[in-house]
């Protein structure tokens, strides 16, 4: 309408018609009065909608990411780079940009409808030229610049995420790096990532420069083109000057509408790269049960090919049957044909050289590693607890540490303080400002204190089954003995990894991994722990031939599978 009135005003002035001119001005003002609030609300509504959409999509991805330890699998097998960046940033860009492009697409459509008939009524030739001109322009843009720009944008997102992650790693490991005086090595690595991002960006800029050359030429020629085409009509007096201005305006408006791909190609290629990254993540995170049917059912990710997997199921006691465990890449066999059953109150100590597969066996028991064959029955997750050597400390209150991972349980303060007392941290609550004060525990507690705090978690949730991976390595023997005795008094079944002979007394059996997939089972009393401190002969143990399930000597409380 504004274009219409602009033409009207010029024609009125050319004809020296004051009434016609002022009428056009009034119509213009009315149009502006409607246009201004509409246009302002447009941005508000668009971005609010984008925000809602982001919340919906991020919630869905977060749900899938944290479902069934998928975050662990994704991080371990590296099928999807930087999932955090995809969830936090790519989703945001995707939702914002989708609406942006949808709305400018709709706007272009309206513009096309509004101006096409104006143009058609003035000159058919202009319409034909316009169609040919934009078809050629779009084809050239997509063909010549499409694929390279999309690829470069995909890598740009990845490189930026790698760069940021290298800085996050430095922050997370600041103390170790400072002790090593590793700043130069870190700086080199961070710079390397940064340079990678810059280099890719430079390539991107070069591609964009070519695209800009093309876009500029395309747009400037479009300004001259309609004038050249209708000049003769005006000169011969067939067309009023105002009509010519209207025609040129309509030509540019229709051109703008149909050139949407050419004009927005840089943004569109970034947008497409982002979609590819979100799609990759969704494909690696299959829909969870309970997600509504309208959710796009993602194809399961092409996980690394595994010919065989260990079957896991829940049972009151832990039992392994013919378990052969491989590393996730399938390259190494860590344990072959292992079978045993632990009865309630049993304690199994796993020993073996570094790298022999002790922690990996615990990963398999916890259901995190599945490459291999055989079956594992284990107590339900709610009845078990895992204590790693370096306990995970969430940033939060002392109460949430003690209840972790069941943060919403309601437990009396007296129970929490009692547990702290028992693990020999009687003044921790007081010195850190009470049970509800928020502290970065991983930074403020020593490793031994963190291990004791993790033990307090076990005492509070009193699981029937406890797995300890060198969980007492930073404690003195007296503390260690007290904590183990406390667990045994609860009647817990224990599986431990330890390098110190002192822990042997708390266990009933020993599983020795001797390398190359071989293993031996011993009764604890008959086992002489060789940690360089204990003396004495090793008790004879029956060697288990790999793959033989009946190699277990059959102790009183631990049943052979
Ligand atoms: N994600 C992985 N992919 C492939 N191999 C792995 C992976 N994680 C560990 N390994 C390999 O599996 C082997 C067993 O590792 P594991 O951590 O179980 O050893 P460990 O006996 O607990 O050693 P330590 O006593 O030093 O803690 C090692 O050789 C290790 O390099």
From TrEMBL:
GO terms for molecular function: ABC-type transporter activity; ATP binding; ATP hydrolysis activity. The keyword Transferase does not apply. InterPro entries: AAA+_ATPase, ABC1_TM_dom, ABC1_TM_sf, ABC_transporter-like_ATP-bd, ABC_transporter-like_CS, ABC_transporter_sub-D, P-loop_NTPase, Sigma_54_int_dom_ATP-bd_1. GO terms for cellular component: plasma membrane. Residues 533-561 are annotated as: Disordered. Residues 318-540 form the ABC transporter domain. Keywords: ATP-binding, Cell membrane, Membrane, Nucleotide-binding, Transmembrane, Transmembrane helix, Transport. Residues 9-270 form the ABC transmembrane type-1 domain. Its main location: membrane. This is ABC transporter ATP-binding protein/permease. It comes from Ottowia testudinis.
């Amino acid at each position: 309408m504004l274009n219409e009135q602009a033409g009207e005003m010029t024609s009125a002035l050319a004809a020296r018609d004051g009434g016609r001119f002022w009428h056009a001005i009034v119509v213009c003002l009315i149009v502006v009065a409607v246009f201004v609030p509409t246009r302002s609300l447009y941005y508000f509504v668009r971005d609010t909608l984008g925000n809602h959409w982001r919340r919906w999509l991020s919630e869905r991805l977060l749900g899938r990411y944290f479902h069934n330890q998928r975050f662990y699998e994704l991080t371990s097998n590296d099928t999807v780079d930087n999932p955090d960046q995809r969830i936090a940033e790519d989703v945001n860009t995707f939702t914002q940009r989708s609406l942006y492009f949808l709305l400018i697409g709709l706007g272009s459509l309206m513009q096309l409808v509004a101006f096409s008939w104006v143009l058609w009524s003035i000159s058919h030739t202009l319409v034909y030229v316009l169609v040919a001109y934009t078809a050629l322009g779009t084809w050239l843009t997509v063909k010549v610049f499409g694929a390279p720009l999309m690829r470069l944008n995909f890598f740009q997102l990845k490189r930026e995420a790698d760069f940021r992650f290298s800085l996050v790693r430095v922050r997370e490991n600041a103390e170790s790096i400072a002790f090593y005086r590793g700043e130069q090595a870190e700086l080199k690595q961070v710079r390397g990532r940064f340079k990678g991002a810059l280099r890719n960006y430079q390539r991107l800029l070069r591609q964009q420069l070519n695209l800009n050359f093309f876009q500029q030429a395309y747009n400037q020629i479009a300004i001259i083109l309609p004038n050249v085409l209708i000049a003769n009509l005006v000169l011969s007096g067939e067309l009023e000057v105002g009509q010519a201005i209207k025609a040129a305006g309509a030509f540019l408006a229709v051109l703008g509408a149909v050139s949407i791909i050419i004009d927005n190609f840089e943004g569109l290629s970034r947008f497409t790269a982002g979609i590819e990254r979100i799609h990759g993540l969704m494909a690696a995170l299959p829909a969870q049960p309970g997600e509504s049917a309208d959710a796009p059912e993602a194809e399961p990710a092409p996980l690394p090919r595994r010919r065989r997997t260990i079957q896991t199921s829940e049972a009151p006691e832990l039992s392994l049957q013919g378990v052969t465990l491989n590393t996730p890449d399938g390259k190494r066999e860590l344990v072959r044909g292992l079978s045993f059953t632990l009865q309630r109150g049993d304690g199994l100590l796993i020993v073996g050289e570094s790298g022999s597969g002790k922690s990996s066996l615990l990963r398999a028991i916890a259901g995190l590693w599945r490459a291999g064959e055989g079956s594992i029955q284990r107590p339900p997750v709610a009845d078990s607890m895992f204590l790693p050597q370096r306990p995970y400390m969430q940033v939060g209150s002392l109460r949430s540490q003690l209840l972790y991972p069941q943060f919403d349980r309601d437990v009396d303060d007296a129970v929490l303080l009692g547990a702290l007392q028992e693990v020999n941290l009687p003044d921790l609550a007081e010195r850190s400002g009470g049970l509800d004060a928020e502290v970065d525990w991983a930074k403020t507690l020593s490793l031994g204190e963190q291990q004791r705090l993790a033990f307090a978690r076990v005492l509070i949730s009193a699981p029937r089954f406890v797995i300890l991976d060198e969980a007492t390595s930073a404690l003195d023997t007296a503390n260690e003995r007290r904590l183990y005795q406390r667990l045994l008094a609860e009647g817990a079944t224990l599986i431990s990894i330890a390098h110190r002979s002192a822990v042997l007394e708390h266990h009933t059996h020993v599983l020795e991994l001797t390398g190359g997939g071989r293993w031996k089972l011993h009764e604890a009393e008959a086992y002489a722990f060789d940690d360089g401190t204990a003396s004495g002969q090793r008790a004879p143990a029956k060697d288990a031939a790999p793959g033989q399930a009946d190699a277990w000597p059959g102790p009183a409380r631990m049943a052979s599978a």
